[in-house]
Amino acid sequence: MPSPAESRPRGRPRAWSDKSEQNTIKALDRAMEVLERLSELGGTTLSDLAEDTGQSAATLYRVLFTLEARGIVDFDPAGQTWHIGPRAFLIGARFLRRTSLVERARPILRQLMRDTGETANLGIARDGQVLFVSQVECHNAIRAFFPPGTLSPMHASGIGKALLAHVPSADCAAIVARHGLERFTKHTLVNDATLSADLSRIRDRGYAIDDEEKNLGMRCIAAAIFDHNGEAVAGLSVSGPAARLPDQALPEIGARVAAAARELTQNLGGQPR
Which residue numbers delimit the HTH iclR-type domain (predicted)? Predict the structure, then answer.
């Protein structure tokens, strides 16, 4: 029979499940809050960041100076602004290498881009939003662009709606309750009944359509990817100007996207619904 020391999970202390404040390093938590907010703003001055986060400029400077020494953030002297640094990108890239999803998706994304002539995207669910993790851009001058690391609300995203269509209704309701149904354009689905009806159509036809719901003039067609338990864990999509994705082309493009999602599901050992 193993001793208590032997049976304890490696890398975790005895009280690893204790989420109380005593186990939180406040300075580190504050630094992570600053880093997350800086990534959302895309670059800002010290004074603006202090006002945005409610922290003092002196405290923020110490946090930013420490992160800069590690290459996590950068300072632009010309504009007196702080930005996410190259080291943050490297750490994020290592997260993507944890799974074979991105690697296995790349050839399928490339083929999907060639088949449709539009930008192909891969996204996963992350804290009730869509996190774009890979993209293959088309060669058109006007094209969709969702660089890896971009977050998008689920209700106004092709991939987001493809995922919502296949989660339990209680989980879907919880996501909506947490993030709301913000209006981005006149086409955004901003009430529960309209969204629910659209999710039902997605399940019936096998793919989702973002019909200028996030950005006017842009459409996105997406389908879900499933794991071995039959749970939707990611989504593939093609995005482009609505003029190049007219109504009459949507069934054919939707079929191609759904087929690509099924192929990736199978390559991952998943079980499509």
Answer: 25-86
* CA–CA gap between residue 135 and residue 239 (Å, rounded): 10
Q: What is the pLDDT of residues 45-94, one digit of tens each?
A: 999 999 988 888 998 999 999 999 998 999 999 889 999 888 887 777 66
Say if CB 164 and CB 172 are below 8 A apart.
Answer: yes
> 120 pairs with which residues across the strands?
136, 238
If we measure between CA atoms, which residue out of 246, 255, 218, 232 comes closest to residue 112?
255
H/E stretch holding 31: helix 26-41
Q: Which residue from 27, 53, 29 is spatially nearest to 40, judged by alpha carbons?
A: 53
- When pLDDT is averaged across residues 246-257 and rounded to a whole number, the result is 96
Tens-digit pLDDT profile for residues 191-230 = 999 999 999 999 999 999 999 999 999 999 999 999 888 8
Identify the structural domains of the chain with CATH numbers, from first to last: 21-90 (1.10.10.10), 99-267 (3.30.450.40)
Give this prediction's pTM: 0.67
Q: Is 42 exposed, middle or buried (0-12, 13-18, 19+ CB in 10 A)?
A: exposed
CB 141 within 8 A of CB 120: no
Q: What percent of the chain has pLDDT over 70?
A: 87
CB 235 within 8 A of CB 223: yes
The DSSP 8-state label assigned to residue 9 in this structure reads: P
pLDDT, average across residues 5-21: 51
